[in-house]
Amino acid sequence: MDIFANLAHGFAVALSPINLLMCLIGALVGTLVGVLPGIGTIATVAMLLPITFGLPPVGALIMLAGIYYGAQYGGSTTSILVNIPGEATSVVTAIDGHQMAKQGRAGPALAIAAIGSFFAGCVATVLIAVLGAPLTKLALAFGPAEYFSLMVLGLIFAVVLAKGSVLKAIAMIVFGLLLSMVGSDIETGASRMAFNIPELADGLGFATVAMGVFGFAEIIRNLDHGAEMNRDLVQQKITGLMPTKKDLVDSTPPILRGTVLGSILGILPGGGAVIASFAAYTLEKKLAKNPSRFGRGAIEGVAAPESANNAAAQTSFIPLLTLGIPPNAVMALMVGAMTIHGIVPGPQVMQKQPDLVWGMIASMWIGNLMLIIINLPLVGIWVRLLRVPYRLMFPSIVIFCAIGIYSVNNAPVDVILAGVFGLVGYWLIKHDFEPAPLLLGMVLGPLMEENLRRALLISRGDWSVFLTRPLSAVLLAVAASLLILTVLPVLRAKRDEVFTESEN
Amino acid sequence: MAETMGHSATATRNTKVVIGFCLLAIAPQIFEFIWSIGTIFGWGAGRGPATVLISHATALVAGAPATLIGSASGETKKASSDVLLALIYSYPIFAVAIVTLFMTVRSAQDYVGGVILMALALFALWASSDLQGMRGFSFGAGTAPRMFGGLLVALSAGIALTGLLADGPGMSHYAWRGPMFVMAAILFFALAIRPLGLVVTAFASFMIAATGSHETRWLEAAIVGACLTLGCAILFPYVLGLPMPMFPRFLIQ
């Protein structure tokens, strides 16, 4: 079989000692940083991106992939132990995971999270290997009109499963699209909304905005009065690391369902790991015989979203490797890393850089294995790290973030911009706007505009091209029906039911 | 009794909101004025404070209405950027502020949020107003920003409307200490990293940021700050190989 020959080739690349070391370092650093509350996957990848500049392309991307998984898993560790989600994907895990920890069952919760992630990772690795090539062929059938419709679908998908008001989520996406327009126009080179500030000529840096809206805003909010209560730490020692037989039996079906759901949602641009975890939790709650257990320490509420977000984290590499579309914020940083190494993501990567693609796929599996090896025995150390009081933690995070942003371009203006976006993020939180759709809009904005322009140019200004091309029409129809389904009050009431609990 | 008290409370709240919106309506003008003060001392380029003040005042009071009347009578004279700012940005916000006076705001969180977002969208519309529009069926540089800007105006108006129609949470409390000191630390870092180098800047920024919390213990913060600075001084330039000035420039020379 071709696939297995390719996979074997991949493992040969990934198992070379230097790449194995890259993978290990990446996973370790990623977990370490992911465990820190306030520094999420995006910030981690953005901060550690410069380390990979000096490495060969394959090693650099393998390392970045390791960082990504590490940060994902580190985030769930914090949410289970202290109810601080290190990043967005582990918000759901915190609901039941932290309840389990309060009942003294932090061990089983952490173990199930690790086992679920590992299983999901294994399945998703095979999926990437099998689906990667066919999807590349599909990618070639995509013209500008289809790409545009795909972007619309991705953005709508972010709306459907975002918590809170649909109108606000859409407004945030459009705000993100507007922010992405800052800087030089791709076609005419005209400077747009840059106010003669030279640093803005290239547009707003994605890392700058992300670090401001997520990192700084979160720190500022945590300093509010009354927020202290949310960060009191679980001091008790974790006893009994391994789950019981009943736990394993209970969590097997949720892991399977979460893996399937996560793999599917991960492939869709705009879906990504965040939505996968929310969707998996919703599904488990709907299928459960006794839904009232959820939110009170149900192990299914840990197993399903953890497997889903890991599966999605993995399959979200498929659109990146085959279509060249970054499906989420971290993937957008990966595109940045690829272009720095002179690799243009897109359909031709598979043929031109087999070492890179298959090496990375194989290293995903190895990365997952390393995560389980690193994390299970080291839980005690992570807990000790979290005992650092917040009064010392937050200035350190500010400094790390400032140095991180400065080092990307050696531009002090970037640091100030990140600070300004920190205030914007604080304002967004106060008015119950969500920053995640904003970032997604910012990532997809340039791609969307480019393809819209191109499609209309080819069709000679005929807007019906988006409906007459079958694939594009289908994508738009799916997007429209998704939006209608969300706006329907019945579904909305159900969404609220799920999400009011996630806020408690 | 209770009802009248509730009414007077919303009334005072409304005036506060209206004053806030009026300030928001001329915020860019105020910002440019403050910025222009710097030109007296020779920092940065741009118009002087007197020019800025006169130009914006005439635009707000006379220029924009004149252009409006002119365009109504079919005259097509190119309006200056200041007049456009008054027309596209300030006037609509003033209009919203006046409307607010006569409204009962049922969810301040949504209403104020929506209006501020609308202000951002209007500002973006003004900022892209000098860009080229559609040329035949081909997009100009300004087409997409204006399209999304217009869409955002509509969406944020919708959000503000829900704030008037449906009950919801009021304004949340804004703290000032945390944001101020964290911002000060960031600002200090940005301004000082080049002249003063990593060692001084990181430690000073750490201490400024630490001031933002009332839980801070000074000796402890100083020790941790020093250790962190040392760690950063080793980690970033040496381990990660990032080019970064380490010590103040005047010490090295």
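qc> The beta strands of chain A are 183-184, 191-192.
qc> done
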